[in-house]
Amino acid sequence: MMTIMTAQEVMEIIPNRFPIFFIDAVDELIPGEKIVCRKNVTINEEFFQGHFPGEPVMPGVLIVESLAQAGSIPLLKMEGFEGKTAYLGGLNKVKFRQKVVPGDVLRLQVDIVKLKSNAGIGYGQAFVGDKKVCEAEMTFIIGAK
Fold first, then answer.
1. Is the pLDDT of residue 113 over 80?
2. Which residues contact 44 (CB under 8 A, 6 or more apart)?
3. Which residues, including other chains, have CB under 8 Å from residue 132's CB and lie 6 or more apart?
4. Quick one: which of 49, 35, 39, 15 has its CA closest to 124?
5. pLDDT the model gives residue 1
6. pLDDT class of 144 with cuts at 50, 70, 90
7. How confident is the model at residue 104 (pLDDT cuts 50, 70, 90)?
8. Residues 51, 77, 84, 132: which is the catalytic one?
9. Cα gap 24→81, rounded to integer Å
10. DSSP string spanning the chain?
11. Is 0.85 topped by the overall pTM?
């Protein structure tokens, strides 16, 4: 995969910062349509200290947060939305299919399936290798910065 945006470039678009910033690289981006990102899951992640001692597992809610961060990027790269903030307004049909553990590389893919004025709906899928580990339908609300 070829990186088209680094983590530093992503931080110019979304407001998230450590310890709740989960995009390491963007590999594919079509503003208003689609994104494919990467999140390298390492044992150094703060959440592994308590989730779970002796069996580190990435919390599902943080996988969904990773998808939400990814999904906000193609919206905020659209004309008229630059410099704004995308808020997660709703989640539907969330499913977890496999554990995510240290050493995994999450491939985050979000397709924007509906757009209207200041809102969008994205279908997100997280993969480790070829296995789908999570999917969710996300509603985004675009607000002022």
1. yes
2. none
3. 97, 98, 125, 126
4. 35
5. 67
6. confident
7. very high
8. 51
9. 22
10. ---SEEHHHHHTTS---TTS----EEEEEETTTEEEEEEE--TT-GGGGTS-TTS----HHHHHHHHHHHHHHHHHTSTTTTT-EEEEEEEEEEEE-S---TT-EEEEEEEEEEEETTEEEEEEEEEETTEEEEEEEEEEEEE--
11. yes
Report the half-sphere exposure of 110 (CA within 13 A, side-chain side).
Answer: 33
Q: Which tokens hold the place of 79?
A: 């004309």
Identify whether 105 is a catalytic site residue: no
Query: CA dihedral in degrees (113, 33, 63, 1; nearest 10)?
Result: 140
The label of the residue with tokens 């079509």 reads 30
Structure tokens at 121: 């709906």
Round the average pLDDT of the chain to a whole number and report it: 96
